[in-house]
Amino acid sequence: MPSRTYDFVIAANRLPVDRVVRDDGTEEWQTSPGGLVTAMESVMRGRSAAWVGWAGIPDETPEPFTDDELLLVPVPLSLDEVTSYYEGYSNDSLWPIYHDVIVPATFRRSWAAAYEQVNERFAQQCAEVAAEGATVWVHDYQLQLVPALLRELRPDVRIGWFNHIPFPPVELFGQLPMRREILTGLLGADFLGFQRPADAENFLRACRRLLGARTKGDVVDVPHTDRRVRAASVPISIDAGGLRELAMSEPVQERAREIREQLGNPRTVLLGVDRLDYTKGIRHRLKAFEELLRDGRLSADDVCLVQVASPSRERVEAYRELREQVERTVGSVNGAYSPIGHTTVTYLHRSFPREEMAALYVAADVMLVTPLRDGMNLVAKEYVTCHDGPGALVLSEFTGAAGQLRQAFMTNPHDIGGLKQAIMDAIETPEKERARRMKALRNQVAKNDVQHWAETYLAALRAAPEKPAPTES
Ligand code: ADP
Ligand code: G6P
């Protein structure tokens, strides 16, 4: 691999594609799961740049390869590191802490050590591919030590970091045994981007409380150095133009009609699309739906719910338990309410191509986005972009998207009574009013798409303070 050649490098735990080994032993590359890849793949497509990340299977290091100008640089993880750095520290220590401790966090010193070791490897790989003076854009909670490690190796490069998930209040963040190392790791960057203003404020407060750092506005003076780092919110988005074009295409429109037919042409199709993650409020959503059927406010004769739940982190206990609970509830709702010939809840535990996802959004009358906490939630933005006419978005207040999609039917998913009412409002609001709200939502996302996000982020990174301004005499 040519070294020090790329002016633009991004690092994320995952590459945009995963190496997948099928049951028959054959292998293929598939799009990686999650919102980070959805957003970054459209930003990076066709750019001459390098993407440093894990290929999704342990103990394998495929050679770097180029995909449409983009060099993909696989970082190897051993099976032990997948368990300790990825499933352990990233997804069983950090993920619960950063999502309001919806499930308890587990701390193990061996996991923390693996996190440091893997972050070191990512930093080295970035240092290897970045050209003199390059921009390196690091992503998400799995790589929070990389900025400082990379600065040590390559003081010449400009370093940005963006957090795709929430940044927790200091009262929760402070539980992390590695809290100071993480803050110091992040402060190695020139600019830190967050989803919501509240996330950036939580970070700034943590720097003051836990590092004794001074802050002025959104800029932190890095203790024991003459460096300053800015932390601000730049909410992420989707490739609205590309997705809209796909959704409007005749094959997708035709498929949407077919989906409704296959569902038995109900009056109302409700839709949920999530990774099968306890942050997404899937259990709360199913409970509200079940109670609406039980109360007779909804009838299984003219309403159905399609729940797409893509497999996620299946070796982590909390995810395994969630899957069992969700599948049990789906079974019991269907047992109690499905008419002969149709299922009231269609549960799809697998990945679909973009075209099929777009057709589902077009087909759905009401989209249910009910996370207990979510950095942004791109599904909400995808739905309003794809759906034409009188749809409705039920949206949790605890998503980053709620800060922008103000015309949605807002809800607190912890309040099951309130959630039921929000679903009923979404169904019963007159068509004209629903169409008006959907249009406003669609325009909001079209104006603030992922290209706009990337430009705003990179402009902020270029403009970030390097050294304190000389004091005027
Ligand atoms: P997260 O990043 O937490 O998974 P987001 O809502 O921000 O949540 O992003 C999820 C992304 O994954 C969206 O682009 C969505 O379309 C996509 N997605 C979710 N489930 C599936 C699925 N079963 N098949 C294909 N894409 C999916
Ligand atoms: C969220 C995170 C990403 C992560 C994705 C999928 O979007 O912000 O960093 O890649 O979920 O999760 P996974 O653990 O499968 O990578």
TrEMBL record:
The biological process GO terms on file are: trehalose biosynthetic process
Give the matching CDD domains. GT20_TPS
| The protein's name | Trehalose 6-phosphate synthase
Which Pfam families does the record cross-reference, listed alphabetically? Answer: Glyco_transf_20
Q: Which InterPro entries is this protein grouped with?
A: Glyco_trans_20 (IPR001830)
Alphabetically, the GO molecular function entries are:
alpha,alpha-trehalose-phosphate synthase (UDP-forming) activity
The membrane spanning regions, by residue number, are none
Record family assignment: Belongs to the glycosyltransferase 20 family.
